[in-house]
UniProtKB/TrEMBL annotation:
<keyword id="KW-0418">Kinase</keyword>
<keyword id="KW-0067">ATP-binding</keyword>
<protein>
    <submittedName>
        <fullName>Phosphotransferase</fullName>
    </submittedName>
</protein>
<keyword id="KW-0808">Transferase</keyword>
<dbReference type="InterPro" id="IPR002575">
    <property type="entry name" value="Aminoglycoside_PTrfase"/>
</dbReference>
<dbReference type="Pfam" id="PF01636">
    <property type="entry name" value="APH"/>
</dbReference>
<feature type="domain" description="Aminoglycoside phosphotransferase">
    <location>
        <begin position="136"/>
        <end position="223"/>
    </location>
</feature>
<comment type="similarity">
    <text>Belongs to the aminoglycoside phosphotransferase family.</text>
</comment>
<dbReference type="InterPro" id="IPR011009">
    <property type="entry name" value="Kinase-like_dom_sf"/>
</dbReference>
<keyword id="KW-0547">Nucleotide-binding</keyword>
<keyword id="KW-0046">Antibiotic resistance</keyword>
<dbReference type="InterPro" id="IPR024165">
    <property type="entry name" value="Kan/Strep_kinase"/>
</dbReference>
Length: 229
């Protein structure tokens, strides 16, 4: 889960979608999946194509109905097309919270991530959610503090930010589902340690939770971090 460092082969499906427009690999995930920006060169990307290896294609198939449903309530990418192992979306304005610009201003990023999760949890209706719990959340999880529609993969790179440092939207919704809000908060705060230089124990995590509007529930956070592992 990082920015590409070497050359990346452009898959046929991406070349077909680009139809002569500029293509640039922007993200490589830990399963060997690559996300390409399309329409680059003169302006910001206008579309993205995420391509996963065959053995992980089901993750992308799960993301399509989740993006379509969540988009009725909050800022997530519009699906333009999909097929086995690929997902084509319209660009959401904004840059990932782990863009170098925000790695150098981690407190701003942590605040935007917390604000974004709060917005997501408030906006998506649990009662109407057609999806079950995220794949990694145990069926016998503790009594929820507050049941919400969770992002399901609330790592820092999946929050997008405007250039002035506010929350812009969410990407990567393949595991969206109903769970305790601490399922997202546990992973979001943990991922700060991976993506930003530390400023002492729990520094940025406290900023994230403050922006969300909650005080740390260390027991629930520990539980969901174990479940995530
Ligand atoms: N429609 C979009 N609009 C804006 N940015 C996007 C869009 N789709 C993807 N991105 C960018 O590409 C990155 C990778 O996309 P995404 O998170 O969906 O891929 P992934 O491989 O599932 O990620 P992960 O490593 O978290 O599993 C995002 O972090 C975001 O910066
Ligand atoms: Mg992602």
């Amino acid at each position: 889960m990082t920015f590409p460092t070497g050359p990346v082969k452009v898959p046929d499906v991406v070349a077909r979608i680009a139809a002569g427009r500029g293509v640039e690999p922007v993200w490589v995930n830990e399963l060997g999946g690559v996300t390409f920006a399309v329409g680059t060169g003169f302006a910001a990307a206008v579309e993205y194509v995420k391509v996963h290896p065959d053995e992980h294609a089901d993750l992308l198939a799960a993301e399509v109905p989740r993006l379509r449903w969540a988009r009725r309530f909050t800022a997530v990418p519009e699906v333009l097309g999909s097929g086995p192992g690929w997902l084509h979306t319209a660009a959401l304005a904004g840059r990932t919270a782990v863009d170098p610009r925000w790695v150098d201003a981690a407190d701003v990023a942590a605040r935007a991530i917390g604000t974004g999760l709060r917005h997501l949890h408030d906006a998506l209706p649990v009662a109407d959610c057609p999806f079950g719990r995220p794949s990694w959340v145990p069926a016998d999880a503790p009594e929820p503090d507050r049941l919400v529609v969770c992002h399901g993969d609330a790592c820092a790179p999946n929050t997008l930010m405007t250039d002035d440092g506010t929350f812009a939207g969410h990407v990567d919704l393949g595991d969206l589902g109903v769970a305790d809000r601490w399922a997202d908060l546990a992973i979001a705060t943990m991922s700060l340690d991976w993506n930003y230089p530390t400023d002492g124990p729990d520094g940025f995590a406290a900023v994230l939770l403050d922006a969300y509007g909650v005080t740390a529930d260390t027991e629930r956070m520990a539980y969901y971090r174990r479940a995530w592992d």
